[in-house]
Amino acid sequence: MGWPVLSIMTWAPFASALVIMALGRSRPALVRWTALIGTAVSMVCALWLYVNYDVATAGFQFFEEFPLVPSMGITYQLAIDGMSLLMVLLTAIIILAGVFASWTVKTRDQEFYALLLLLVTGVFGVFVSLDLFVFFLFYEIAVLPMYLLIGIWGSSGEVRPQGLFGWAFGRTGVGTKEYAAMKLTLYLLLGSAFILVGMLALYVAAGSTSFSLLALEAVEFDPALQSWVFLAFYIGFGILAAIFPFHTWSPDGHASAPTAVSMLHAGVLMKLGAYGVIRIGMGLLPDATQQWVWLVGAIACINIVYGALSAMAQKDLKYVIAYSSVSHMGIVMLGAATLTENGMNGAVFQMFAHGIMTGLFFALVGLVYEKAHSREIFRMGGFATMMPGIAVAFTIGGLSSLGLPATAGFVAEFLTFLGAWSSANSWWLFPAVIGAFLTSLYVLRVVRAIFWGPKSDDPRFQELPDAQGTEWVAIVILVGVLVLFGVLPGLAITPIDASTVPLLMRLGGM
Amino acid sequence: MGLYAYLSLAAVVFSIGLFGVMTRRNTVGILLGIELMLNAVNINLVAFSRFHGEVTGMVLTVFAICITVAEVALGLSIVILLFRTRRTAMADHVDWLKG
Amino acid sequence: MNTSYPLVIESGLFTLLLAVFLLGLVRRRADDLLAGWVTLVGLAGLTLAAWSAEPGRVALEGSFVLDELSLFGKRLFLLSGLLSVLATLAMTHPSFRRRGTEYYVVFLASLLGMLVLASARDLIVLFVAFELMSIPLYFLTGFLKGEDAAPEGAMKFFLIGSISSAVILYGLSFVYGAAGTTNMAAIPPAVAVGDPLMLLGLGLMLGGLGFKIAAVPFHMWVPDTYEAANTPFVAWISIAPKAAGFVAILRLYVEGVGEAAVLWVPLIATLAAVSIVAGNLMAIPQKNIKRLLAYSGVAHIGYLLLGLAAMSVSGVGMVLFYLVAYLFGNMGAFFVVQAVNGAEQSDDVEAYRGLARRSPMLALSLLLFLLSLGGIPFMAGFWAKLFVFWAAIEQGMYLLAFLGAVLTVVALYYYLVVARRMYIEDPAVPTPIPVPAPLMVAIGGCLAGIIVMGVYPEPWVQAFLRVALTLFSTN
Amino acid sequence: MDSPLDPLVLAVVLAPVSAFMLLALVAPLRRSGRPAAVVSILGAATAFVSAVLVWRGLDAPLQRVWTWLPDANGALASVGFLADEQSSVMLLLVTLVSLLVQIYSLGYLSDEPAPGIGRYYAYQSLFAFSMLGLVVAPNLVQLFVCWELVGLCSYLLIGFWYRKPSAARAAVKAFWTTKAGDVGLLIGIVLLWRHTGTFDFAELRQLVDGGLVGIDGLALITFCIYLGAAGKSAQFPLHVWLPDAMEGPTPVSALIHAATMVTAGVYLLVRMAFLFALTPDVLLLVAWVGAGTALMAAMLACAQNDIKRVLAYSTVSQLGYMMTAIGAGFASAGFFHLLTHGVFKALLFLGAGAVIHAVGTNDITRMGGLARRMPQTMVVFLVGTLSLAGLPLFGGFLSKEEVLAAVWDGGMTGPFVFLLVAAFLTAFYMFRVVFLAFFGPETSRESEHGGGHAPHDAPWSMSLPLWALALASMAIGVYFTFHHPETAFEAPGWLAPLATGVASGGVVLAWLTFQRKMISAEALAQATGPLRTAAARGFWVDEAFVAVYRGMLMALARIVGWIDRYIVDGVLNVVSAWTVSGGDGLRGIQTGKVQDYVLALAAGVVAVMWWLRGAM
Q1: What ipTM does the predicted assembly reach?
Q2: Does C4 lie at the interface with B, CB-CB under 8 angstroms?
Q3: From D172, which residue of chain A is nearest by alpha-carbon distance?
Q4: What range does the domain containing C146 cover?
């Protein structure tokens, strides 16, 4: 194959972003179609990769190399294995759906799409780059546009905490979209500071010759170094994966962000954190992994239960979804922490499943908000009559998030549970299962309150349209994937397994 | 042991100059303080140059003196300029730019 | 004639200076735009000359060298001068029409000082060059004597400046005393044996140089001067004299000293840490963007010192890289500030509300400059920061690197606040901001600089590492 | 081994699911109402026919599996079917009832808007598929998957009329309660997998027979599995959802909450009996809880006036019977009762449905004298009642007797007594319903369904299934009264008469009370006193759950929510606020006075000197 498919996939959105900026003002249709084409190209590439990835030989494939800063051993080195393959697929799906979901963006759509696509390029880059350094490069690209995306097109919430620490909240301006944007961006950049230091430490320890993951994998780092570098990575990436107690950017950020951004961020970027922990933290530092896995697992358990409980306490729909993400990322980290085949597969599968699921959620919440102009769960009611499509889709998403079989969510959780019980700290199983149960509590509560319940008598909610036109496309894509991978998990597990098993081999997990 | 005597003298003069700079409120006074400091340096240089028995020190001194002159010239002009706009030569009255 | 001979460029600049001066004498009454153009053309030529020059020659029996470092310095000074003059041409302030020649002459004088300084290998030359560079700066700060901020800024700059040069000179006297000669080649051996007099001298000089590069606590003059002086000039002093200071530091404390140089590491590391923290924190509450950039500049000096503290080839090389990246980023930012000031007559961050809606390209370029300063990928600043961290970590200074990395987040905070004004808020008046052609060119140049360095840093890295190598290899 | 039956078994499972797909994906078809119903019914019919063929043709157990969850060494979990005599009979029951119920629904939902009907039948087909999948599941994973899916269908169908607040609430309640049990089941499955390394029933059986399964820790596993069963099969205290589930359309109650889904728990235990045999303590628990549930539910049934709730509680009670039998160690007896009960309870529900459809109320006290108005319904309902009461020649007779025998033979006197009392009460409350609803004076009904015209027998679409089921239960009854099946236990001679006697006693009491009015119902109520009031309140189990949910869970959630905003996030904000203020503070040193600057400079130099002093 002469084509640099990975590069095409990664840079296609960027290219279309440039085109969009080049377009004259007030050409909405053209802007949207350009964006759509860009993402479609990525989608096609992703599918091509999925089809042509050779599971039998496993390992990294589709190598692309080009020396970037030879004097420092920085190479533009791309390749994917099963894990990244799935993540790439996820990204492609989400952004495609995202473009459709934000078809109706009115203000400054040019900049919106440009930034969104720039962001996506970053995300793709992270998943496909093998060179730690390029990884980091794309990582920052994936984080930064968030600020403007939320700041300009976001919506301010109603949360105005008072009382304890009121002065601090006042000073930082909790509740406004600017606050959310700033918090999210800075928090994630803080994480990247940790990552950077850890990365350089490894690079130097390995003799300042190469940043390539493959090269570094071969190195046996000194345990003491491993130990703190692992923590640096864990915190750095963990912030993005919303591990407790570094998760508070997620609710505010996701609640304020515009639909497509929430989709992309909760759906893909959080995975990016988990991916970093697994691929770089665990992949490069086997000893430290063994040493710290108890911590990772324990915090993951906290995430699961804590996130679920927080979600129960929310009255704002977007906050519920955001906290559910916190809880589900717990499942991911837990699966990874088990260091067992099933757990690891479960973790990666959960990344994918939750990505689709939460993408769907935010798409739907966006639609509901657009039609009903409300996010207050207990004001709305009986929407199923007026917007059956949205109601059904939301229900399916909810069922998936509470781990109902025949949706992707179940497979992920089931595998994770198996892994947890067969791991060194088998007690992890119980918080995980309880978390799943709590999820069923708050999800169904919401579903009943908004959709499948008595109609609210609020005059605003008497005549509401169902989703229409392009909005359907987004919903259908996501629901379809969710169910498809729930019914035929083999589609995903096979490539995943091809990448997790070698990783576990190196970790001595099996 | 002559050298160290000179050095100490220079040190004393330098310190006096610095003290003056920090304590004088009048800009011109501060300029004088700076003059003292520079002359302390000259003492040093000459002393060293004698000690080593070669002239470069002296040369440097000459340069130093010229430059000092230039500096003072410019300094005074700035002080005048300041006095024109602010109607004061007191250094600590001039604090519009801060924070 | 072959520019590889020492003093060729200097003499070229001197001729230019005279030419402009005479021009001023000749066309007394007319407006002085011409002087600016002449200066510009001259500088452009000299810059090219500097680029074509080859290192290696020596003059005045070794007190004036044309080595890699000096060439780097000269190119940097000339380039920044060129950009600054470009921007100055866009200044509409009457003083530039009436007294432009003065401005350019003095400007060139200072530039001449820098060029000489870059090559000085003798204490006398060093000192003279230093003063030749500094004294004009005081004048230029107060150039807009009509504005009531200018004299105050000039006064403060002048007093602190001359005190610090007194300190430098005092230290210099001890160095001379210890070495018995003004040739810097005599310094390394003395340091190697730890001659107290020498160390005393160098210590004092470090204090004085700290003022030139504006490291905390010697930075106090920076914000006030920046606020007072006219923007193109500020853009220039925000980089050129500091670079000169670093060249001097490299000459005095690093070149040829080799192993013994580690002696200074703790001192420099402390200065770095303090500068990074204080600079970034104090930048947060600033309302005036020039002050904000001033404080962030202080922080950047901290990062430069961080690289220097590594006292390694890579460290020094990365400091040079950082200087160039910083040149483009910072000057560019100041040029945009100048453009906005030209329309709004204000340097308040408030004046940037909705800039993205008024003139998108201007806003975008400012955003990029700030991001470059903040160290965001695909901008020169990113590599710069990364490289200094690398150098630091290479020497095992993990905590220092970590501190630096964390405080970049603080830096991004106040840069993003500006971004927020430009992009998120709505403009008070929708009219676009006019950007004079020369200024546009200058901005474009800086933009090109940060992006080229950001996308493909390799050649630069190699060049600078080579320069650094010479410093450590010599004797 | 490739058997001609394979396609048939597959057909049983796939026919409904294809119907569902059709309805789910082809929106216009779904919205068209009756055509949708026809599609679904066709699916069910196909399933039924193939089920019959499978049942007739099956000689040896038949298993087929395909990999579902791959892992490094082949397959972690697989899907497929295991057809043996248990599953094939169960298939028969499920397909039969669901077919009849779907037909019945045509009439019952006649005045539902077309899209509603489409939705209804989509759910129905999905349920049929999941239930059948559960029945034929060859391993625990598939069983669990289908298990959850039937739970989902029950949720959807209970909430079919979601505009009714009570319905919406009941649906969620049902889901939550069963889900709570499923947590146990899931844990059990995971633990078991870790314990034995397989999900597959056949393999498990081999391991058990080979004595390769460690006993220690097994009790926990079986207990967890039992939790799941208890949730689905409404064992105390998880029975609370079943009565509320009656908010759903009556056919649904007949199918899901009487005949099939609720019995899934029992079926699971029957499937796993060989494993439970290893943990007698758990079995004992199962038995006692079962018996207790049976008795308690029977009492509750006596205190209800809503005909459907009476039936619901009787279902709970009968499930208790089955569980007790399994607990006694004779799963076959429980399974047998499951089958017969499935038939006649469906019959009863559909009959009740017909009545409600005609009368427009669930309240038996507002019915009466319907026998004259709707004779057919009366007859079939009576058949059902007699079977439930367990009188000879009727469906429930032998199965109930066998359960009693099993329990007695299992040496569990306590549960045995419970069950006897329950049997008595069963007869009593069922005939109470019969007498109040069908005999006695006609009460005037103003709020009558369908305006003025008097209630009448149901249309063919409803009466046909009724008769079919009636005949079926009669057939079972007659057949088994004379052919005693082989059992692992022998019934003591006195048991049959005793059981019959007890049942008839209940009937008589009911007759005396509600027909002859020789004993006043009030007096009876007085006699039972506080017990009755407690029963009326459902023994406050609901209140207990609500207390746990509101008082503990939600409270905890609020606390956590507060902590998250004010502590975790608060600290973060404090730190940021401090950073900003720190900047403000430092600005203070920039006084703008030149001397201070000089001071700073001097201080710096001095500091450098000081440091040098140390360095030299």
Answers
A1: 0.89
A2: no
A3: A444
A4: 1-256
